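FAQ: What does the model actually see?

It sees only this:
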Amino acid sequence: MTETESIAYDVVVIGGGPVGENVADRTRAAGLTTALVESELVGGECSYWACMPSKALLRPVIAQADARRLPGLAQTVRGPLDAPAVLARRDDYTSHWHDDGQVAWLEGTGADLYRGQGRLAGPRTVTVTGSDGTVTTLTARHAVAVSTGTRAQLPDLPGLGDVKPWTSREATSGKAAPDRLIVVGGGVVATEMATAWQALGSRVTLLVRGKGLLNRMEPFAGELVAEALTEAGVDIRTGTSVESVSRENGTVVAVTGTGDRIEAEEILFATGRVPHTDDLGLETVGLEPGSWLDVDDSLRVTGTDWLYAVGDVNHRALLTHQGKYQARIAGAAIAARAAGGTLAEEPWGAHAATADHHAVPQVVFTDPEAAAVGLSLAEAEQAGHRVRAVDVEFSSVAGAGLYGDGYKGRARMVVDLEEEILRGVTFVGPGVGELIHSATVAVAGRVPLGRLWHAVPSYPTLSEVWLRLLEAYRDN
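And it is asked to produce this:
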């Protein structure tokens, strides 16, 4: 191991995914010298093993499903997807797992890139161990930002080590569809990957420990997605746990809690995420290795005045777009503190990630899509709000019928009866992902229902569901 001299920066960012990139971009824009440390590919999980490859896999699936709902077009798309072509397009969207473009963008910001394993080595100090064993020490005058994200959580099961299971990484980067695929889990990764690989030619068995899918959304979201997955050929088994796994002559055998043996070529565990902080040197600054990092609304780690944790690693909202939002807040807060300025830390202020508490949007790219922002009915009630749920079927919207024959979907808004604002909105149906930002604006902006009456939806579009929701609230 070769030591090098210490190099000083205003800010050091550990983790070069989209969150770390945005912290670096914002601090550089404020005139601060910034170093970014990355041990894998610049662009991170989202660019190579999550958002981009998964949506590239899913887009042809959704487009085909939409086409099959339109007479005149349906007859031309009777055959299966061209799986090699879909996978090739996926490869293009991951830049074939090369990060040259991302590195060029980063260099354009003026930040310095250090490749290697970054670890804290005391307050405001980061060591970077390169692949050749060379250790570089970086010091930060103002802030160190940890943006190392998460990794897949695997259960402690007998035989798992020999099976070499898929995680989200293998599921989004697979080179061919296995004949049979077992998916364990009922959340976003499980439902999206079941959707994609079933359409690409796999026979998918989805094993769900709980009662249904997408349990962090309104119950009808999981119900509608489960119905569609079943129609597509996915074998969904709820209330089912996996007790052991093995690989016998190349075939995975999963044994469930009821003693059933399920065989497949591959098995995907989509059973949660854990923070990427176990080898981060947290113990050198009095924090627990492997832990989530607790932060205030400026993303500064509790009990410190120099350490920030931005993105998934703080466990506030495990979503790329929310992490990038946090990065913009953190970058502004770091810059303001470095300049000796006063922070706007009040709710919805420039240095407060208030949306993490009240207006987190998410889209699940299944068929149908499920999109939600803010609180579900159950969450709003648990938070002590006096609320009412207003539901409408998309069949009441002219734009839904035009979108495709047999369009099936539902919308819900959760109304705060005391303030007459929206606490949450959920849409389920084909194409609803493009509706969710209007709901996000309404929730984050605390737009009064009386004002929403004057936000006229264009006819005939899916957005007319807003009028149906407001009418249902008025009339009942």
